[in-house]
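Quick entry between incubations.
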Amino acid sequence: DVKVTQSSRYLVKRTGEKVFLECVQDMDHENMFWYRQDPGLGLRLIYFSYDVKMKEKGDIPEGYSVSREKKERFSLILESASTNQTSMYLCASSNPGPTGEQYFGPGTRLTVT
Amino acid sequence: RKEVEQDPGPFNVPEGATVAFNCTYSNSASQSFFWYRQDCRKEPKLLMSVYSSGNEDGRFTAQLNRASQYISLLIRDSKLSDSATYLCVVTVNSGYALNFGKGTSLLVTP
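Done. Structure below.
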Protein backbone atom coordinates (compact mmCIF):
# COMPACT_ATOMS: atom_id res chain seq x y z
CA ASP A 1 0.00 0.00 0.00
CA VAL A 2 1.27 3.44 -0.93
CA LYS A 3 1.74 5.62 2.06
CA VAL A 4 2.14 9.38 2.09
CA THR A 5 2.56 10.86 5.53
CA GLN A 6 2.54 14.47 6.64
CA SER A 7 4.27 15.70 9.77
CA SER A 8 1.22 17.20 11.47
CA ARG A 9 -2.56 16.93 11.17
CA TYR A 10 -3.16 20.26 12.86
CA LEU A 11 -0.81 23.23 13.28
CA VAL A 12 -1.33 26.68 14.76
CA LYS A 13 1.25 29.36 14.07
CA ARG A 14 1.51 33.10 14.56
CA THR A 15 1.78 35.69 11.81
CA GLY A 16 5.39 36.15 10.74
CA GLU A 17 6.59 32.74 11.92
CA LYS A 18 8.53 30.45 9.61
CA VAL A 19 6.57 27.24 9.08
CA PHE A 20 7.79 23.89 7.80
CA LEU A 21 5.40 21.25 6.51
CA GLU A 22 6.99 17.88 5.88
CA CYS A 23 5.82 15.12 3.58
CA VAL A 24 7.27 11.63 3.20
CA GLN A 25 6.29 8.91 0.70
CA ASP A 26 7.38 5.28 0.81
CA MET A 27 6.78 4.17 -2.78
CA ASP A 28 9.90 5.55 -4.46
CA HIS A 29 7.76 7.96 -6.51
CA GLU A 30 9.60 10.50 -8.59
CA ASN A 31 6.96 13.23 -8.49
CA MET A 32 5.80 15.03 -5.39
CA PHE A 33 3.29 17.84 -5.04
CA TRP A 34 2.00 20.40 -2.56
CA TYR A 35 -1.57 21.65 -2.81
CA ARG A 36 -3.75 23.82 -0.67
CA GLN A 37 -7.48 23.31 -0.45
CA ASP A 38 -9.91 26.06 0.49
CA PRO A 39 -13.72 26.08 0.53
CA GLY A 40 -15.09 27.36 -2.77
CA LEU A 41 -11.65 27.35 -4.40
CA GLY A 42 -10.91 23.65 -4.55
CA LEU A 43 -7.42 22.19 -4.75
CA ARG A 44 -4.71 24.51 -6.03
CA LEU A 45 -1.17 23.48 -6.85
CA ILE A 46 1.55 25.37 -5.00
CA TYR A 47 4.73 23.60 -6.12
CA PHE A 48 5.77 20.25 -7.49
CA SER A 49 9.01 18.36 -7.89
CA TYR A 50 9.86 15.72 -10.48
CA ASP A 51 13.28 14.81 -9.09
CA VAL A 52 15.56 15.41 -6.15
CA LYS A 53 16.56 19.08 -5.95
CA MET A 54 14.20 19.93 -8.81
CA LYS A 55 11.12 22.07 -8.33
CA GLU A 56 8.51 23.77 -10.46
CA LYS A 57 6.05 26.49 -9.53
CA GLY A 58 2.41 25.65 -9.58
CA ASP A 59 -0.52 28.03 -9.79
CA ILE A 60 -0.02 29.84 -6.46
CA PRO A 61 3.66 29.76 -5.40
CA GLU A 62 3.77 33.25 -3.87
CA GLY A 63 4.69 33.18 -0.20
CA TYR A 64 5.92 29.58 -0.35
CA SER A 65 9.12 27.74 -1.07
CA VAL A 66 9.95 24.03 -1.20
CA SER A 67 12.86 21.72 -0.62
CA ARG A 68 13.53 18.23 -1.91
CA GLU A 69 16.88 16.93 -0.71
CA LYS A 70 15.85 13.27 -0.72
CA LYS A 71 13.57 11.42 -3.09
CA GLU A 72 11.10 10.42 -0.41
CA ARG A 73 10.78 13.79 1.30
CA PHE A 74 9.25 17.06 0.08
CA SER A 75 9.01 20.06 2.38
CA LEU A 76 6.84 23.13 2.05
CA ILE A 77 8.11 26.28 3.71
CA LEU A 78 6.18 29.38 4.60
CA GLU A 79 8.94 31.97 5.09
CA SER A 80 6.73 34.39 6.99
CA ALA A 81 3.28 33.01 7.68
CA SER A 82 0.28 35.23 7.05
CA THR A 83 -3.37 34.82 7.95
CA ASN A 84 -4.32 34.26 4.31
CA GLN A 85 -2.20 31.11 4.39
CA THR A 86 -4.64 29.49 6.81
CA SER A 87 -5.71 26.44 4.85
CA MET A 88 -5.63 22.66 4.44
CA TYR A 89 -2.32 21.61 2.90
CA LEU A 90 -2.17 18.34 1.01
CA CYS A 91 0.93 16.56 -0.19
CA ALA A 92 0.81 13.99 -3.01
CA SER A 93 3.18 11.73 -4.89
CA SER A 94 3.08 9.86 -8.17
CA ASN A 95 5.12 8.16 -10.83
CA PRO A 96 5.73 10.15 -14.01
CA GLY A 97 3.59 9.88 -17.11
CA PRO A 98 0.05 10.87 -18.06
CA THR A 99 -1.58 7.93 -16.35
CA GLY A 100 0.21 8.39 -13.04
CA GLU A 101 -2.28 8.27 -10.18
CA GLN A 102 -1.55 10.75 -7.42
CA TYR A 103 -1.54 9.48 -3.85
CA PHE A 104 -2.38 12.01 -1.20
CA GLY A 105 -1.35 12.37 2.41
CA PRO A 106 -3.97 13.02 5.10
CA GLY A 107 -3.44 16.77 5.03
CA THR A 108 -2.27 19.40 7.50
CA ARG A 109 -4.81 21.94 8.73
CA LEU A 110 -2.72 25.09 9.28
CA THR A 111 -4.15 28.04 11.17
CA VAL A 112 -2.20 31.29 11.21
CA THR A 113 -3.31 33.73 13.91
CA ARG B 1 -11.69 31.01 -17.10
CA LYS B 2 -11.20 28.06 -14.82
CA GLU B 3 -9.65 25.12 -16.65
CA VAL B 4 -11.96 22.50 -15.16
CA GLU B 5 -15.55 23.35 -14.29
CA GLN B 6 -18.06 21.30 -12.36
CA ASP B 7 -21.51 21.88 -10.96
CA PRO B 8 -20.81 22.18 -7.22
CA GLY B 9 -24.17 20.70 -6.21
CA PRO B 10 -25.03 19.54 -3.66
CA PHE B 11 -26.85 16.64 -5.22
CA ASN B 12 -29.23 15.07 -2.71
CA VAL B 13 -30.52 11.71 -3.95
CA PRO B 14 -32.30 8.77 -2.31
CA GLU B 15 -30.65 5.38 -2.02
CA GLY B 16 -30.98 3.41 -5.22
CA ALA B 17 -31.16 6.46 -7.46
CA THR B 18 -29.03 7.06 -10.53
CA VAL B 19 -27.07 10.31 -10.52
CA ALA B 20 -24.86 11.91 -13.16
CA PHE B 21 -22.11 14.49 -12.76
CA ASN B 22 -20.71 16.58 -15.57
CA CYS B 23 -17.46 18.37 -16.05
CA THR B 24 -16.04 20.57 -18.81
CA TYR B 25 -12.43 21.44 -19.46
CA SER B 26 -11.02 24.33 -21.43
CA ASN B 27 -7.63 23.11 -22.65
CA SER B 28 -7.97 21.09 -25.85
CA ALA B 29 -4.43 19.77 -25.32
CA SER B 30 -5.54 17.88 -22.21
CA GLN B 31 -4.31 14.32 -22.29
CA SER B 32 -5.60 12.36 -19.34
CA PHE B 33 -8.79 12.48 -17.35
CA PHE B 34 -9.82 11.15 -13.98
CA TRP B 35 -12.50 11.18 -11.35
CA TYR B 36 -11.29 11.41 -7.76
CA ARG B 37 -13.43 10.98 -4.68
CA GLN B 38 -12.96 12.95 -1.47
CA ASP B 39 -14.76 11.98 1.72
CA CYS B 40 -15.46 14.61 4.35
CA ARG B 41 -12.21 15.66 6.07
CA LYS B 42 -10.22 13.08 4.12
CA GLU B 43 -7.73 13.22 1.28
CA PRO B 44 -8.76 12.75 -2.38
CA LYS B 45 -8.43 9.25 -3.82
CA LEU B 46 -8.58 8.06 -7.39
CA LEU B 47 -12.00 6.68 -8.28
CA MET B 48 -11.40 5.90 -11.93
CA SER B 49 -9.62 6.99 -15.06
CA VAL B 50 -11.68 8.18 -18.02
CA TYR B 51 -11.06 6.95 -21.54
CA SER B 52 -12.46 8.06 -24.89
CA SER B 53 -14.15 4.71 -25.31
CA GLY B 54 -15.86 5.08 -21.96
CA ASN B 55 -15.25 2.79 -19.03
CA GLU B 56 -17.22 1.11 -16.34
CA ASP B 57 -16.33 -0.07 -12.85
CA GLY B 58 -19.24 -1.75 -11.15
CA ARG B 59 -21.93 0.87 -10.57
CA PHE B 60 -19.74 3.67 -11.92
CA THR B 61 -19.49 4.66 -15.59
CA ALA B 62 -17.22 7.40 -16.91
CA GLN B 63 -17.44 8.97 -20.36
CA LEU B 64 -15.20 11.37 -22.25
CA ASN B 65 -16.21 13.50 -25.23
CA ARG B 66 -13.06 15.14 -26.58
CA ALA B 67 -14.91 17.09 -29.27
CA SER B 68 -17.10 18.79 -26.68
CA GLN B 69 -14.38 18.75 -23.98
CA TYR B 70 -16.79 17.14 -21.61
CA ILE B 71 -16.46 14.39 -19.01
CA SER B 72 -19.23 12.62 -17.15
CA LEU B 73 -19.63 10.23 -14.24
CA LEU B 74 -22.73 8.12 -13.79
CA ILE B 75 -23.47 6.36 -10.51
CA ARG B 76 -26.20 3.70 -10.59
CA ASP B 77 -28.01 2.26 -7.58
CA SER B 78 -26.59 4.88 -5.21
CA LYS B 79 -25.47 3.73 -1.76
CA LEU B 80 -25.22 5.75 1.43
CA SER B 81 -21.46 5.19 1.26
CA ASP B 82 -21.32 7.03 -2.08
CA SER B 83 -21.85 10.31 -0.21
CA ALA B 84 -18.70 12.33 -0.92
CA THR B 85 -17.31 15.06 -3.12
CA TYR B 86 -16.40 13.98 -6.63
CA LEU B 87 -13.51 15.80 -8.27
CA CYS B 88 -13.03 15.99 -12.01
CA VAL B 89 -9.33 16.00 -12.86
CA VAL B 90 -7.48 16.74 -16.09
CA THR B 91 -3.81 16.65 -17.01
CA VAL B 92 -2.03 18.53 -19.76
CA ASN B 93 1.43 18.32 -21.30
CA SER B 94 3.58 15.73 -19.62
CA GLY B 95 0.93 14.91 -17.09
CA TYR B 96 3.02 15.96 -14.15
CA ALA B 97 0.44 18.25 -12.66
CA LEU B 98 -3.26 17.66 -12.29
CA ASN B 99 -5.90 20.35 -12.74
CA PHE B 100 -8.71 19.77 -10.29
CA GLY B 101 -12.28 20.92 -10.60
CA LYS B 102 -13.79 22.33 -7.41
CA GLY B 103 -15.82 19.18 -6.91
CA THR B 104 -19.45 18.12 -6.89
CA SER B 105 -20.97 17.21 -3.56
CA LEU B 106 -23.22 14.14 -3.39
CA LEU B 107 -25.41 13.20 -0.45
CA VAL B 108 -27.27 9.91 -0.62
CA THR B 109 -30.12 9.69 1.85
CA PRO B 110 -31.98 6.66 3.23
